Every structure is written in structure tokens, then in C-alpha cells.
Amino acid sequence: MNPIQPMKNLLFYFCVLFISISFLPTQSSASKLSAYEVLRSYDFPVGLLPQGVTGYELEPKTGKFAAYLNGSCSFSIQGYQLKYKSKITGYISKDKLTQLKGVTVKILFIWVNIIEVTSSGNELGFSVGIISANFPIDNFDESPQCGCGFECNKKKKKVWSIRTNPFVSSS
């Protein structure tokens, strides 16, 4: 028997195995959870992220995550101005987002980073370090839209008025 033949056979089987694995079905994008569904799975409302998340990464063992937007995003909600960078990172666990980066809120005249979000009962707690505030979780049932928050769909009534010129006569 040729001593090279077993090596050729092994190489052939390796190639067949590699090609077979390459064509195995992978998880389709349709079956992958959206970033909003991932938030829900950790007991957070979808409204923590604005509309338009283009993708995300999640390491389930550590909870390390990154969410991506097409670009930076800003809007006002109930008197608060918020800014999201195009990449938001942190760690997620049940009822807790920590080491959050990429989300800022304007307090008085300065922009500060929101570094932690906790969910407890019917409230969400937002921490910017030494200061924190709680809000009803219902306020975050919907995702705001970049540029206009929740004011995008409110139609402003256009007032039409017919002006007449008393100095022009039709006769």
C-alpha cells in the first residue's frame, strides 16, 4: 500500500466535511430576535431604544451587548433631551443595564451619561452617577423616533384662511 494514500484519503474526508459544514443551514435573520425582543427577554420595555436599531451583538454568558443605529440620534421627551450615539454598549442582566455607554441626557445645561438602568416593579430607575431618577415603566412601552420622539405622528392642524381684499371689486 502506498504510504501517501492514507494522507490523501484523510485530506479528501476533511474537504468533504468542510464543504458539508459550509452548507449547513445557519440561523436566519428572520429567526434571530430583534434588539427590542432581547430587551423584553430581560424584563425591559422596548422604549429604551429608539426606532431604527440596525443590529446588535450579545454575549449571553456575560451579558455584554452592543446595539447599532444608522447614526447618532436625538430627541426630546417630556422636557428631557436625549442623545444616542450610533453604538450603544453595556451589560444586560435581568432587570439591570450597567456600564452603559452611548446614551446621554441634558440636565439643566450639561449633558451627562446615563450609566445604569434598573427595572423594579412598575418603575425604571436611571442613574447618571450620583443622581438617579425613577419613571413609570409605562412611559417606555413604545420606542421614540429619532428627531421627534413621540411627537412625529401628531398632525399639526393647518389653518387655512381665505383673505379678501375689500378694495378689489368683482364687478
Automatic annotation (TrEMBL):
Pfam families: DUF538
Record-linked Gene3D superfamilies: At5g01610-like
Signal peptide per UniProt: 1-30
Coiled coil stretches, renumbered: none
UniProt entry keywords in alphabetical sequence: Signal
Keyword Lipid metabolism: no
InterPro entries: At5g01610-like (IPR036758), DUF538 (IPR007493)
Annotated PANTHER family: DUF538 FAMILY PROTEIN, T31J12.3 PROTEIN-RELATED
The protein, known as: Uncharacterized protein
Species of origin: Coptis chinensis
